[in-house]
Amino acid sequence: MNNKKITRILSVGLCAIMLVPSVVSAKEFNDVKKSGGYSWAYDYIDEMSDKGIIEGYPGGDFQPTKPVSLEETLQLLKGIINPSKDDLTKAVDKYGSICDKYGVSSWAKEAVSLAVDKNIITEETLKEAKSKGFIDSDSMVYPNRNTVAVYFGRGLNLSSSGNDSVLKHKDIDKIPASTKGYLASLVEAGIFSATGSEGNFDGDRYIRRSEMAKITKLSYDYKTKTGAVSSETKEATGTVVLSTSLNNLDAIIIEKDAKRSQFRVNSSTTYKMNDKTAAFSDIKAGQEVKVTYSESSDTTVAGVAKTIEVTNSSKDLIGYITATNSNGITVKYTTNKDNIDVKSDDIKTTDNSNFELATNAKIYELGKEVKSGDLKLDSLVEFKTDSSGKVIEVMSYPKSGSVTGEITSKSTTSISDSSSSSDRRETIKLKLDNGKTYTFYGNYINNNNSELFNNLKVGEKVTLTTNFKIVTRTGSSDEKLNIGRITNIDVYSSTNSNNETGSVTLESSNGNRTTYYLTRNTSVYEEDGLRINSIDSGYLRNKYVELELDGSKILKIKIINENNQFDTVAQITHITVDGVFNSTTKTYRIKVLNDGTGALRKGEEYYFDAEKGFDIYDIIRISGYKSGNTLGGVSIEKIDKESKEIDHYDNYTGSGTIIN
Question: Other C-beta atoms within 10 Å of 382: how many?
Answer without folding.
Answer: 20
